[in-house]
Amino acid sequence: MSHTSVNRGAHQTPHQDLHSEQGALRGEHPGRSRNPVIKVADLAWLEFEKPDLDRAEVFARDFGFAIAARTEHELWLRGTFAGSPCMVIRRGRASRFLGPAFRAAERADVDRLAAAVGHTVRDIDVPGGGRSVTLFDPSGLPVRVVHCAEPLPALPGQPPLTLNTGIEPRRTNAPQRPPREPSRIQRLGHVVLETRTFARTLDWYLDTLGMIVSDFLFLDGQRGRGPTMAFVRCDQGGTPVDHHTLALHLGPGNGYVHSAYQVTDLDSIAAGGEYLAERGYQRSWGIGRHIQGSQLFDYWRDPDRFMLEHFADGDLFSCDLEPGWAPMSASGLAQWGPPVTRDFLGTNPSPAKLREVMTALREDNELDPARLLGLMKAMSS
């Protein structure tokens, strides 16, 4: 009997098979916490350090960010939508990811979370001001929860093209000529993190920040050991939100994998990609359409080798949709598009990667030889 038919008999719901061929089997991870400390509303921004803020600003403008604020030591980037900035880059000796900041639904949630974990609420230097509390997830990554006092106002957006898609044309006597210009970023969509402590880290985000799982991925032949990747969204009740605001996967590393920024449409992705290619930036993978989340995607490397994604047309889920379950594989990353690259998968061999794997295998964590072999098989399948 298939996993799907077992699940139908035990847990029939109106959402069965809506976004995944398989649902949970009896006793598997429910994908949410029964009593989280708070429920964050969204991802606010990401924090980085880089030694060259001028170079970072050139790439940011080419990629499609607007500049929210710039000082000698900080660069705040934003999209066209009203709200918080997307990213802050602080001057530092080396290029590194400092951590994510999540937006609290209310100011009181910051105070409640600080009291629950015994940490102090502090003022933040975000444009417009605000308050935050800093925590650490089980992998050791700093995580801020913030409440901004004054959201940034909206900027002029990049209008979507009018498309002729059927028997009722919407565009006549008007040729399409999308400008060759940067894709204008609308907002920050999600961040993907790698962790050696996947199960504990996932539960921490569900229990502490009230996030819920949209989709689990598991290794071939190892489903009984639990999932190795989760696409996690915020819980805003009946209000639909991004399929994933955070994605976590088990691996030998700890930290940043990539971040994703919404743009208007496919033409914005493609024309913006041509603009980046003409300026010598490296495409990591794309253009294509994902399976989990359904986004149109295009991945690029910035001059500091961080991976960033342009995306459009992603899935939106309300709180009542149950997690889907699917096997992890490289071929399962896209519905269509070019073959996934080794650069995107992070499987390019290097001495640094080998040291990372050997260190992870020596430590007390969730990455054992069977898990590592399963991941290697999945990334080559």
Walk me through this protein's architecture.
- This protein is of the alpha+beta class and 381 residues long.
- The protein has one domain: 2,3-Dihydroxybiphenyl 1,2-Dioxygenase, domain 1 (Roll).
- 22% of the residues lie in helices and 30% in strands.
- It has helices at 3-10, 53-63, 107-117, 198-209, 266-278, 342-345, 351-362, 369-379; strands spanning 42-50, 66-70, 74-78, 87-91, 96-103, 122-124, 130-136, 142-148, 187-195, 212-218, 229-233, 241-242, 246-250, 255-262, 282-290, 296-301, 307-312, 316-317, 324-327, 334-336.
- It has a 10-stranded mixed β-sheet with strand order 19-10-11-13-9-14-17-16-15-20, covered by helices on one side. It has an 8-stranded mixed β-sheet with strand order 2-3-4-1-5-8-7-6, with helices on one face.
- A hairpin with a 5-residue loop joins strand 7 (130-136) and strand 8.
- The chain is globular and about 60 Å long.
- It starts with a helix and ends with a helix.
- The model is unreliable at 1-12 (pLDDT under 50).
